[in-house]
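User: Please predict the structure of the protein below. I'd like the answer in structure-token form so I can feed it into my own downstream comparison script.

Assistant: Understood. Taking the following sequence of 221 residues as input:
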Amino acid sequence: MLSPLGVTLIQSAILNAFSNILAQLIDQYKHGKPLSLNVIALIQFVTYAVIIVPMNFSWQRYVEAKFPGFPSTAGWRRGRASPPSSSSVVSSSPAFFTTPTAPPPDVLPRKEKPARDAVPATGSNSGMRNFIIKFMLDQTIAGFVNIVIFIFLINLLKGANLSTIWDLICEDFWPITVARSKFRPVVSILMYTVVPVDRRVVFGSACGVIWGVYLSLYAAV
């Protein structure tokens, strides 16, 4: 039985291989070249994916643990449908331990209403705040690091030296960043609201087949 990381690694490698093959076909058609498979370019791109996927997988788990997603509203709805029992309300009140008589009739509404109303407001605010944090991290830190690693790895696999790779990072970082910003925000919104954490890397790869084509064309397939 494969681990979640193993399944993610295989699926992402397949999706990246598909995007690279598609990029090769586009490049050959565009330049009037005979259709053929550049196996070396394919291996380089899949190798890059195999290296980067575990890093992104761990990153997504860390971010989700640090900033959990939206809480379920099932408990809040149950609370709205059926108010807390009198025993649970009274036992939480200090007056229960100091007097054998029941609390005045107006005590229960005052104690019940704030607690009931506070749960959805706090949970909703916390979920939205965490979503915004994860969204911004994906658009900034995660995006920048992934682009630098891509330029570094793909050119290292092609045999470039460190000096050349640094020049390419300085030259290509912002054009790739701008290109990424045209589609990644929509992917991030879906990824951090409806996609389970262990499926996010695969989801990103599936949504990013076109992005993979762009990166493959950058890699001069």
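That's the full token string. Confidence is low (pLDDT under 50) at residues 71-102, 111-122.
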